Amino acid sequence: MTVTKEEILRALSGVGLPGGGDLVSRDLIRALTVEGGVVRFVIEAESPEAARALGPVSGAAEAAVKRLAGVDAVQVVMTAHGPAAKPAAPPSLKIGQHPTPQQGGPQKVSGVDRIIAVASGKGGVGKSTVSSNLAVALARQGRRVGLLDADIYGPSQPRMMGVSKRPASPDGKIIEPLQAHGVTMMSIGLMLKEDEAVIWRGPMIMGALQQLLGQVAWGKLDVLIIDLPPGTGDIQLSLAQRTQLTGALVVSTPQDVALLDARKALDMFSKLKVPVLGLIENMSTFCCPNCGHETQIFGHGGVKAEAAKLGLPFLGELPLALSVRQAGDAGVPIAATDAPEAEAYARLAKGLIAGGMA
Ligand SMILES: Nc1ncnc2c1ncn2[C@@H]1O[C@H](COP(=O)(O)OP(=O)(O)OP(=O)(O)O)[C@@H](O)[C@H]1O
């Protein structure tokens, strides 16, 4: 049996790095070759100092690959200078086109068992933070997870998941997704020049979404999480009409104004006949990193009460924590770490798996 490059990369993505991330999510593997049972690759550090700091990682990488069936020998070279990163072939595929007509009602995405849309009535309530952390938490619990950043006007998943590489499309038809923290991911932000989408009109946006669902090689997934733009616009409408969704998660802060907006999102899903899997309260309680004192900055419990009123499941409270914001900005979602704040996301993931939703 010959080992595949995908199996090797999967094993290498389990090798953590000092400072967070892993060999694959931080894009350090170069020149990976397999000849019979012999695997060779280069770990390319950013500088000679970084290469020294990665010394123990080289041994761990070798051991991780050696454990794979079909591997007889592993040769790892650590370099700080090269070979230079081969830029991914720029996709000749043009993203953003008029959607093609579709026969019948909402359709499945090939190979994907469930699709969960993460929505919010207004911006800034933490929808992207919840999407990335939930995706990583589900992957840590053994699910095959995809994350599609469909927030066309403010794609934040590349930053939150720590990826910046432009995905390749060698044949101009299929887009190869990226891997980060055990999650297969794709963001509209990785395919566009800055500000390109801002001028798009409805049909272009719908075409782009259709391409991201249908032309990305998602592979076999237990669940695909879609990070939607805030509000109730073209993307939400197009997604619900064209794609079979398992359901939507609606994120809100406990504040009245956010809840009012959340109600608009809930109304929209009800009209579109998309089941709402539940409501999530983000920025629920602030825990001071210095003294541990808990403060309810935006109030507390409002989303749970609203869910009860509407007869919808309440899926949990996520704390407002400096570490959550810092982790998101650093490209290593808090759910990928062993910090106490990861717990709430692990619980959310566990609940969705137990309910057959992920
Ligand atoms: N629980 C939290 N604790 C601390 N900071 C948070 C939390 N949730 C979100 N944030 C921070 O708040 C900001 C907005 O979050 P995020 O981008 O996830 O919101 P959004 O609803 O997706 O916004 P957008 O309208 O841009 O789509 C980010 O800087 C994020 O790091």
TrEMBL record:
<feature type="domain" description="MIP18 family-like">
    <location>
        <begin position="5"/>
        <end position="76"/>
    </location>
</feature>
<dbReference type="InterPro" id="IPR027417">
    <property type="entry name" value="P-loop_NTPase"/>
</dbReference>
<comment type="function">
    <text>Binds and transfers iron-sulfur (Fe-S) clusters to target apoproteins. Can hydrolyze ATP.</text>
</comment>
<comment type="similarity">
    <text>Belongs to the Mrp/NBP35 ATP-binding proteins family.</text>
</comment>
<feature type="region of interest" description="Disordered">
    <location>
        <begin position="83"/>
        <end position="109"/>
    </location>
</feature>
<dbReference type="Pfam" id="PF10609">
    <property type="entry name" value="ParA"/>
</dbReference>
<dbReference type="InterPro" id="IPR033756">
    <property type="entry name" value="YlxH/NBP35"/>
</dbReference>
<keyword id="KW-0378">Hydrolase</keyword>
<dbReference type="InterPro" id="IPR019591">
    <property type="entry name" value="Mrp/NBP35_ATP-bd"/>
</dbReference>
<dbReference type="InterPro" id="IPR044304">
    <property type="entry name" value="NUBPL-like"/>
</dbReference>
<protein>
    <recommendedName>
        <fullName>Iron-sulfur cluster carrier protein</fullName>
    </recommendedName>
</protein>
<dbReference type="InterPro" id="IPR002744">
    <property type="entry name" value="MIP18-like"/>
</dbReference>
<keyword id="KW-0408">Iron</keyword>
<dbReference type="GO" id="GO:0005524">
    <property type="term" value="F:ATP binding"/>
</dbReference>
<dbReference type="InterPro" id="IPR000808">
    <property type="entry name" value="Mrp-like_CS"/>
</dbReference>
<feature type="compositionally biased region" description="Low complexity">
    <location>
        <begin position="96"/>
        <end position="107"/>
    </location>
</feature>
<keyword id="KW-0479">Metal-binding</keyword>
<keyword id="KW-0547">Nucleotide-binding</keyword>
<keyword id="KW-0411">Iron-sulfur</keyword>
<keyword id="KW-0067">ATP-binding</keyword>
<feature type="binding site">
    <location>
        <begin position="121"/>
        <end position="128"/>
    </location>
    <ligand>
        <name>ATP</name>
    </ligand>
</feature>
<dbReference type="InterPro" id="IPR034904">
    <property type="entry name" value="FSCA_dom_sf"/>
</dbReference>
<comment type="subunit">
    <text>Homodimer.</text>
</comment>
<comment type="similarity">
    <text>In the N-terminal section; belongs to the MIP18 family.</text>
</comment>
<dbReference type="Pfam" id="PF01883">
    <property type="entry name" value="FeS_assembly_P"/>
</dbReference>
